[in-house]
Amino acid sequence: MPRQENRARGLKAAISNPNVSDSAKAKDQQMLEEEYGGSGQDYDASSSEEGGKMPQNVARGLKAATHNPNVTDFGKKQARDKLAEMGGEPEQPVD
Questions:
Q1: Are 88 and 59 in contact (CB under 8 A)?
Q2: pLDDT on residue 5
C-alpha cells in the first residue's frame, strides 16, 4: 500500500497535468477531497510560509546563483538582494 504522502502527491500531480482528461481530473479532485479533506495540504512536505518553498533551499539556491558564472551581474545582484531580504548574509562578489 502506498504511503499517504505519495498518494496525495500523485492525485495533485494528476489534477495539474495538462495531459490528463477533465473527467479524470474531476475524479482525482473528488478523491483528494474525500481522503484528505480538501487539497491534501497536510501531506505536502514542501509547504511552508514561503509560498510552498522551503526557506533553507531558497537561500541555498540564491547563494549558488551569486557564484554561478552563467548568471548575469544583474541576476547576481538580485540574488544577493533577495538573500539579504531573507535575513541571510550575502557575500560580496569576487568577480
A1: yes
A2: 78
Report the C-alpha gap between 73 and 18 in whole angstroms.
36
Asked if 46 and 60 touch (Cβ cutoff 8 Å), the reply is no
Grid cell 514561503 is found at 50
- Look up cell 557575500; give the residue: 91
Q: Where are the domains of the chain?
A: 4-43, 55-85
**CA 88, CA 80: separation in Å to the nearest integer?**
9
What residue ranges of the chain have pLDDT lower than 50? 1, 40, 42-50
Task: Give the type of residue at 55.
Answer: P
Inter-residue contact 43 to 36 (CB < 8 Å): yes
* CB contact set of 31 (below 8 Å; sequence gap of 6+): 11
Q: Give φ, ψ of 51 to 5 degrees.
A: 65, 40
Residues 6+ apart with CB under 8 A from 76: 65, 66, 68, 93
- Please give the model's pTM, rounded to 2 decimal places: 0.44
Q: What is the pLDDT of residue 21?
A: 92
